[in-house]
Amino acid sequence: MIPFNRPPCTGAEEQYIKQALKSNKLSGDGPFGKQCQSWFESNLPARKTLLTPSCTAALELAAVLTDIQPGDEVIMPSYTFVSTANAFVLRGAKVVFVDIRPDTMNIDENLIEAAITPQTRAIVPVHYAGVACEMDTIMAIAERHNLYVIEDAAQGMMSSYKRRALGTIGHLGAFSFHETKNYTSGGEGGLLIINDERFAERAEVIREKGTNRSQFFRGMVDKYQWVDIGSSYLPSELQSAYLWAQLEQATEINDSRLAAWNFYAHQLQGLSKSGRIELPTIPTGCTHNAHMFYLKTSGLEERTALLEHLKSHDILAVFHYVPLHTAKAGAEFGRFHGEDRFTTSESERLVRLPLFFSITEHQQQHVINEIISFYE
Ligand SMILES: *Cc1c(COP(=O)(O)O)cnc(C)c1O
User: Fold this and answer.
1) Which of 59, 82, 255, 284 is deepest in the core (most CB within 10 A)?
2) Which spans of this chain does the record mark as coiled coil (predicted)?
3) b/e per residue 117-156 (b: at least 16 CB within 10 A)
């Protein structure tokens, strides 16, 4: 069976984890944790970055930082992972879903402004497949209406929009290091990216259970105490050790994924040109990280048949999000603003092909051959 995903591993992870074990410092913000954060701060670059146990945790931290209150509204696409919405619903917010663009599956920036009400506090663009949302338009809307922008860049590490790294454009951004993403910190992990100076100090406090412990460790206060609301949002040093091995080879991993992505795109061009399938669009000004290779079938029935065909030839291809507004909790905690022209219909056509760091050309060729034979 060709799996859909395999967690990335460069080979150095084991050595760094052993090193962390020997150091007798296993909790968060140890040497590997700090090294990873410095890497992001200088390479993205970003004002400040904080490793978290997941992207979900980073989004929750962002919701606390932006002081989201019961009754506030937060605008986002419905075609996303549950955590994008949950982070704000946990603060009592109402989620307002806006339709997506069929070309990138990202929020349609031209529909956002009409969804704004006096209760709106934030916009949460999700960079689907590591391809950027139209951030200039989104940032201009946010500025006009005095809203926060929190980028769900869970899939977006190493991607950019007009030469700026995803996650560094909004007031706050979040990455995921879950094993299904391009880089992992041993299965679970995330990063909060702080671009707005106003959030830098409070973010550390909320992440450290609402204490000023980080300042204490830097010698800025002589004892640490409870100063704010907070939770435990630090990953362990073992997770950071795993991640460090991946950051050292960030470019190699990215190049290898891009090569695999381009191979699919090239080999499936014929089917796309003849109109049998649709392939992803990368808007000009965007560089992507090959997080995902998807194609679109003519509709739901053809998709089901294609997935079955691939499965019967030992290939695990998968569909993706069930739009949140069509789910039980989505109806309870959110509302869809305007017409669902593309969210549901486009999500029903989408098929994700196996793509991971160690995928071989031989495996990819088998996938390609079976897609072509399905359409013959
Ligand atoms: C993976 C993902 C998340 C959640 O990431 P975790 O690290 O598993 O919490 C959130 N949003 C999007 C768009 C994702 O793809």
Assistant:
1) 59
2) none
3) eeebbbbbbbbbbbbbbbbeebbebbeeeebbbbbbbbbb
* Residues 6+ positions from 376 with CB-CB distance below 8 Å: none
The β-bridge partners of 77 are 98
The residue length of the chain stands at: 376
Answer yes or no: are the C-beta atoms of 202 and 65 closer than 8 Å. Answer: yes
Topology of 250-375 in CATH? Aspartate Aminotransferase, domain 1 (3.90.1150)
pLDDT, tens only, 212-256: 998 888 888 888 999 999 999 999 999 999 999 999 999 999 999
Q: What is the pTM of this model?
A: 0.98
User: Is the Cβ–Cβ distance between 133 and 26 less than 8 Å?
Assistant: no
CATH number for the domain formed by residue range(s) 13-247? 3.40.640.10
Q: Where are the domains of the chain?
A: 13-247, 250-375
20 C-alpha vs ligand 1 centroid, how far in Å? Answer: 26
CA dihedral 174, 178, 183, 189 (to 10 degrees): 60
Strand order in the sheet with 172-176: 48-52, 190-194, 172-176, 148-152, 120-123, 73-77, 94-98, 334-336
Same fold, 13-247 and 250-375: no
The rounded distance, in Å, linking the Cα atoms of 246 and 339 is 42
Q: What is the best residue among 81, 95, 294 to mutate for testing ligand 1's pocket, by most ligand atoms within 8 Å of CB?
A: 81
* Residue 256 token pair: 């290898």
